[in-house]
């Protein structure tokens, strides 16, 4: 197994699932990593299928608000994130994507390891392939400036926990509620 894929396999093996669905996704991801070294997207949108993604979920530590963007491609409110480059560590992807998509510095504020994993079929313009997504938490205050990438997001906004619970779940990544349940204090 190539070193970069072995590092991802170690991350996946270290997870404690938050629910039965995440446990199933972890088994799927572990089996996938055992049978291939081709886990990094090389050709847009879906070669290879599946491939790795890192999500960065900005959470205000004082209020629990979550920063999400109205993603142009997917048509959903999503956290920033993107595809893991060839041989890039998923944490490096998370740092890079936060800088590219929000214009924020992440040093000391981004978790060193992901806290959640999903295996999902994509929607939107580039739909129909599978993303194995590692979700990282970014501590970010609501008062801190962000500069959202207009190519990625039509807009960004902070969502209060109560707003997210009462909103139409179909407007978000299908796993967002499960992620929030896992990381809620």
Query: In percent, how much strand structure appears in the residues?
Result: 15-25%
**Number of helical segments with 4 or more residues:** 5
Shape: globular
The run of helices and strands is: HHEEEEHEEEHH
Kindly state the number of beta strands: 7
Level of helix content? 25-40%
Q: Could you list the spans in which at least 5 consecutive residues all have pLDDT below 50?
A: none
Mean pLDDT: 93
State Rg.
15 Å
Largest sheet: 4 strands, mixed
Strand order of the largest sheet: 4-1-6-5
Q: How does the helix and strand content classify structurally?
A: alpha+beta
Termini gap: 37 Å
Task: Provide a descriptive summary of the structure in words.
By secondary structure, the chain is α+β, with helices and mostly antiparallel strands. The protein contains five helices and seven strands; from the N terminus they run ααββββαβββαα. The strands form two sheets. The protein has a four-stranded mixed β-sheet with strand order 4-1-6-5. A three-stranded antiparallel β-sheet has the order 3-2-7. α1 runs antiparallel to α2. The chain is globular and about 45 Å long.
Topology of this protein?
Layout: H1 3-14, H2 20-35, E1 51-59, E2 66-71, E3 77-78, E4 81-83, H3 90-102, E5 116-121, E6 130-139, E7 153-159, H4 161-166, H5 176-183
Parallel strand pairs: 1-6
Antiparallel strand pairs: 1-4, 2-3, 2-7, 5-6
Helix pairs in contact: 1-2
